[in-house]
Amino acid sequence: MFKNLNFIYKILIFLSASVITVLLFPGSNKFSYEFQKGEPWKHMNLIAEYDFPVYKSDELIKVERDSILKFAKPYFTYNRDVFITVEIKLNNDFKKSTEKLTETISDKKLNELIKLNANKIRIILLNELHLIYEKGIIEPVNDKEKTVKNNSDIYIVKENVAELVLISSLYTQKKAYSELNKTYSELKAQSKFSLPEIDFSEYVFFNVSYNRQMSQKATEQLLKELSPVRGMIQAGERIIYEGQLINDEKFQILTSLKKQYISEQNSYSDKLVLFFGELIIATSIFTILFLYLFFYNKKIFDNNRKLLYFPFMMILIIIITAVVSNHQRVDIYIVPVTILPLITATFYKPRTAFLHHIVTILLLGFIVANGFEYIFIQFIAGFVAISGVSKLNRRSEVLWTALMIFISYLILYIAFTIIKEGEIEKIDFNKFAWFAGSSILVLMAYPLIYFIEKVFGFISDVTLIELSDTNRPLLKLLAEKAPGTFQHSVQVANISESAAREIEANPLLVRAGALYHDIGKMSNPSFFIENQHSENPHDKISPQKSIEIIKQHVSEGIKIAKKYSLPKDVSDFILTHHGNAKITWFLFKYKEAHKDEKIDEEKFRYNGILPYSKETAVVMIVDSVEAASRSLTEYTESSIDNLIEKIVQSKIKENLLIHTDITFDDINKIKKILKNKLRNIYHTRVIYPE
């Protein structure tokens, strides 16, 4: 029952994706006439059946918009409070300075004269300041504010009233400072008494400040008022006759007719029929992907979270393309469609990534103009992207791939232009910039991988390489607390990686899993043989207690893995490297001590899970062999070979490998790798007599 519900859930995911995709399609039928600028009109004489507006060309609208953006009058806000603050400060400072001048003079009459003179000067300066602040001291404007730089006059808002003022009539802080300094110097020269020194920079602040929000609103209003229409065609008026050359004017009229036709035609019932027709096509395309994953990629299909990645990424690309296609100023090729197969190829085989790309661009063909041309160009670019890099292990590979995608776009665009226009001079070089922008955006694939890993539970080769760095905190902690276990893990990782390559498993996943498979031993390192130097602590405790400690390294390993946020695909090696195998040595010891007791052997098994893939199977076999090889009394080819055969056969006999897709041919290859590696490791070991 659960399997049936799960299958229905998967169908609903893809059906929902089909519905969302159709809702993003342009909701109208195609215009009946095909035409191109510079070519003759290939249809019969065309007469207007109804009135319709002639829209301005994109180029003309762009010129008008740019003119508004460049010369729109900026708005500044006048602040009266600045002068009030300055006035208070000047009065206080003048009073203090005057008192300081007179405090050493004992003649009271002279003191009074100095104070009267200073007060007179203060009033003159305040009047000067008032005039300056009344005119306004303008805020220095950043070079980015081009509207200010391009205008000789501005709007100043005082008491909610905007007044147009010449910029040259306003003061700058530097000009205001100079004026005040000059006035004060003249007053000091004319004064019979000493005057205090004044730093006018402390009294000169701008009170006319740029109001970016108000300026932007005014500009936006002007842009809204910009009319997209430049004329009208009346019903019955001839638009173009058969064979007439389509010049710029006729092209714009025909484009306007097409736009009007698309916006006005289609009744509700027509749109409903159109919706179901498009839904059938979209569902057919999604079904191709659904069936491919069902028949050829069961691992993906059975994992709902990973399965969701495929329709999710398709919908995301379709949404972005639909949004961009509605903006006439943005070219559709800016959307980095090739990022999709690049990311998919990071987690899956190239053929899966390529199919994912193909079904996506087939759907995009319903959204963009010149669908065939677009699909063809993106088809080739996607193939180039997947061919250029398969796993995104190195940033240099991404850069190289982006360059190859850009070159592909250029070559194919030039080819299509020559086919359509018949001459190379018609190439629009502005397209090159859009192609370059799209190729640069492809570089986002590298940082996006991290986000996608977290959302959909993937693990990329980039992450596996980072996890395999022995300088990572967790591995350094393992080397510090359990150096023998660390060396054992490194040895298992090296051998397992070679074996994985031989049987076409994921060598990077195997290496990472092997490095972390025994991290649980950090809790009680001395109870594991590779960390023991003299006495064995198991000799002092019962077999039951030993079993408990030995089994505990799996559960402790999972706890540590969660603490350090190891990906599930890596932490699974902790659970699977022993599976539910028997801990034979301590079972044997217990039997020896309790010969007459009926023993429950299930208590002497690990509490892990059985290996479920080639990768987990490889680490289980190599871990068991490498650990057992340390207890050999002599290291000869025959002793090593016998040990490997014995352990591998025991794993097969106990059905520990039954849930993996590993074959006998794979097992033979693993045994061969083990024999070669262990012979190389131990052939120089010296065996000392006891």
Describe this structure in words.
The radius of gyration is 40 Å and the shape is flat. Helices cover 62% and strands 5% of the residues. It has a four-stranded mixed beta sheet with strand order 5-4-3-6. The chain has a two-stranded antiparallel ribbon with strand order 1-8. A two-stranded antiparallel sheet has the order 2-7. The protein is mostly helical and 690 residues long. The longest helix is centred in the middle third of the chain and has 29 residues.
Attribute tags:
Hypothetical protein af1432; 8 strands; mainly alpha; 3 domains; single chain; 62% helix; 690 residues
**Uncertain runs with pLDDT below 50, 5 residues or more?**
684-690
First-last Cα distance:
64 Å
Strand fraction band?
under 5%
Mean pLDDT across residues: 84
Classified by CATH, the class of the largest domain is: Mainly Alpha
Strand count, sense and closure of the main sheet?
4 strands, mixed
Identify the strand order in the major beta sheet: 5-4-3-6
Number of strands: 8
Q: Helical segment tally?
A: 27
How many whole angstroms does the radius of gyration measure?
40 Å
Q: Tell the overall outline.
A: flat
Summed up, the domain count is 3
